[in-house]
Design a protein that fits this description.
Length: 188
């Protein structure tokens, strides 16, 4: 018969299930079990004391090895000089001050033959320059744009245009239906 043991804090409770009439060696079983527990506790305490005695040395050795690795990494990283090449003729795309565009719109209440909203040629050329630079940046980072659909790519261009110009640049600003009727219009 093997006893069940429960450990709670510093207390060990041992439970024996037996019928006294059938087991004349019950008292000897209890004494043997208590003796085994006491022996195991003594052995465990010796192991714990030994481990605790070595623990400070183990921790100091671990810290020393870790520090040596970190210092070696720092030394290596300081000794390596990675050449960084700046692209020629490539300026920052975002200006300090955004520009305001004035769009001349025809009166929408009546149809004016041959008239369309327009912007100055200089502003138009600057917008093309921003779009060209955005396309150039996309070429240098193809993984970023790989798998994107046209609306998502267009949004990248709109971000750049909105960084340069006041108001909000929008996609498909002059969306026409049928006979040139303007259904959506936002001036940038």
């Amino acid at each position: 018969m093997r006893p069940d043991a429960i450990i709670q804090g510093n207390t060990i409770s041992v439970r024996f299930i037996t019928k006294l009439k059938e087991d004349p060696n019950f008292n000897r079983l209890i004494e043997n079990t208590i003796g085994e527990i006491e022996t195991n506790i003594q052995n465990l305490n010796k192991d714990i004391q030994k481990y605790n005695g070595e623990l400070e040395f183990i921790i100091k050795r671990f810290i020393k090895e870790r520090k040596e690795k970190l210092l070696l990494r720092e030394k290596i990283s300081k000794s390596i000089e990675v050449p960084i090449k700046r692209r020629k003729n490539f300026s920052a795309l975002i200006p300090i001050k955004r520009k305001k565009i004035i769009v001349e719109l025809p009166e929408l209440t009546k149809k004016i033959e041959g008239s369309n909203p327009s912007i100055a040629v200089k502003v138009y050329e600057n917008i093309l320059y921003v779009c060209y630079n955005m396309g150039h940046a996309m070429e240098f980072n193809p993984n970023t744009f790989e798998g994107l659909e046209e609306p998502q790519i267009r949004d990248f261009f709109l971000v750049m245009l909105n960084a340069f110009y006041e108001s909000a640049a929008t996609g498909e600003t002059f969306n026409k239906l049928g006979e040139g009727r303007i259904t959506t219009m936002r001036a940038i």
